[in-house]
Amino acid sequence: MTGIDSVDFFTDNKLLADPYDYLAALRAECPLRREKQHDVVMVTGYDGRPARGHRQRRNLPVRGGILVHHWSSHSRQRRSQDMSTPEQRLQPLPAEAWGEAEYAAFGALLGMPGDKVPRAGSGEPYDPMRFDIIGLLARHPKMARVFLTFNGFLLQRGELPARLRELTILRVALSRRSAYEWGQHARMAARSDISEDDIARLARGNDGFEGADRLVLDATDELLAAGHARWETWQALAESLGGHAAMEFIFVVGVYTLSAMAFETWGLPPAPGTAPLPD
Prior knowledge:
The protein has 279 residues and is mainly alpha-helical. The protein has 3 domains: 20-83, no CATH class; 95-155, no CATH class; 158-266, AhpD-like. Helix content is 49%, strand content 7%. It is built from 11 helices and 5 strands. It has helices at residues 20-27, 73-83, 100-110, 132-137, 141-157, 162-175, 179-189, 196-204, 211-226, 231-241, 243-266; strands at 32-35, 40-44, 51-52, 59-60, 65-70. Strand 3 and strand 4 form a beta hairpin. The chain is globular, with a radius of gyration of 21 Å.
């Protein structure tokens, strides 16, 4: 690292195809911060010499660190187009295509038989047409039924406390840049004893949290960065939460990471009126 002046992970094919796991692991060794006036991400803790901007013919005054990534205007624009999902690519199943299998899949999440699920287009509170994600999953009703059964267990019938579950999901959404997931669970947070101040703190990092809150946030970061938790982390989770809740926690991280991958691939936009994904 000490020999690198500037690296653009998004245009240099010799480097990682996806830099996020690398940056997350790097964060464990030295803190990252954004230098707002130059729109760069810095790694602190190295020497303070200026770093030369990628594709730039000038020096960027990086203080106290090496410039790891510089978004030039063209790369910022390209990345915004790629990741902000300006238009939905995969459309929800239309109301006229819903049948017994699709209603059974949605019923698995709601905890009711398919024939009791409100009809698509009925305008009722649980009309499936009100939920774009349900309409997308209904395109594969057999898979959706199994997935939503498990997802419903984690959300409604598991042993992991709701506050810890929602803090975990918000951290996954923020890390994986899922605007839909963030908006939905920021809205659900108030029902799980999570305040707006809690959400604002979570968007800044883990400082300000303690006890079980801090434990699950740190463990989520660890799982996302390394793909697994250290044995010491697992032991701390099991001791603090209990064995069942600790197991559920790992699956919550996995399920909502998987969901974020699907949402961003399909271009699922955030629901109207939900909180925007923080920068």
